[in-house]
Design brief:
- Helix content is about 35%, strand content about 10%.
- With about 200 residues, it is an alpha+beta fold.
- The protein has two domains: about 30-90, no CATH class; about 95-190, no CATH class.
- The strands form two sheets. It has a three-stranded antiparallel beta sheet. A three-stranded antiparallel beta sheet has the order 5-4-6.
- A hairpin with a 6-residue loop joins strand 1 (about 30-35) and strand 2 (about 40-45).
- The radius of gyration is 25 Å and the shape is elongated.
- It starts with a helix and ends in a 33-residue tail after the last helix.
């Protein structure tokens, strides 16, 4: 009887430890952005989360990468960038970086505030110097910092509209008199601006 109780207690302890390790290492999931120690430039990486969890079950600390934008050329590196992730996993997630950049910004086309960046919601986009819009998560993660620096925010609705106009220009009717913004976006008319002849 005592033996059964001891086994049950050990099982519960092991299960509790496994759950704790799993919850802790969930923060390492997804695409992450680090500064490569070798080049000093951004690199996109992914942590082998489940391998780390299994190692944790036997009392080992084994956090390693399973993907990197510099692989396969540099696959045999020392993975010294892991210390950046372990210090603050959340700060290195692509989602966190994008959400922080879009926070408080307004769409360059319609002026509406950009909604919070969440996994299950429509992704806002970026307007690049070529005046093309792309959802932020369709940009390679290692290129995200430069893209954010050189782009302007676009809400999902305007991104869809601009993409349709770019891909199907023959199906779109343009009204240039309404597009008076500095980059050709819709802008409110001034109060003293003369209305179009057909306006009532």
């Amino acid at each position: 009887m005592v033996g059964i109780i001891l086994i049950a207690c050990a099982t519960l302890l092991l299960l509790g430890y496994a759950i704790r390790q799993t919850v802790k290492l969930q923060g390492y999931q997804g695409k992450m952005l680090v500064t490569c120690p070798e080049t000093g430039k951004p690199a996109a990486v992914k942590v082998a989360t489940w391998r780390a969890i299994l190692a944790g079950l036997v009392g080992q600390h084994h956090v390693r990468l399973c993907a990197c934008s510099r692989w396969p050329e540099r696959e045999g590196c020392d993975q010294d960038c892991l210390c950046q992730i372990e210090a603050n996993p959340e700060a290195h997630k692509a989602w966190t970086i994008a959400a922080k950049w879009f926070e408080g910004k307004k769409c360059v086309y319609c002026g509406a505030g950009i909604s919070s960046v969440k996994p299950l919601e429509h992704r806002p986009a970026l307007l690049n110097v070529e005046r093309e819009t792309r959802q932020w998560d369709q940009i390679p993660t290692e290129e995200l910092p430069e893209a954010l620096w050189a782009s302007q925010p676009v809400c999902w609705s305007c991104h869809v509209a601009e993409t349709f106009k770019r891909e199907f220009p023959d199906r779109v009717t343009y009204r240039p008199w309404k597009r008076s913004g500095p980059i050709g976006e819709y802008a409110a008319q001034a109060e003293n601006q003369q209305a179009p002849p057909n306006a009532k």
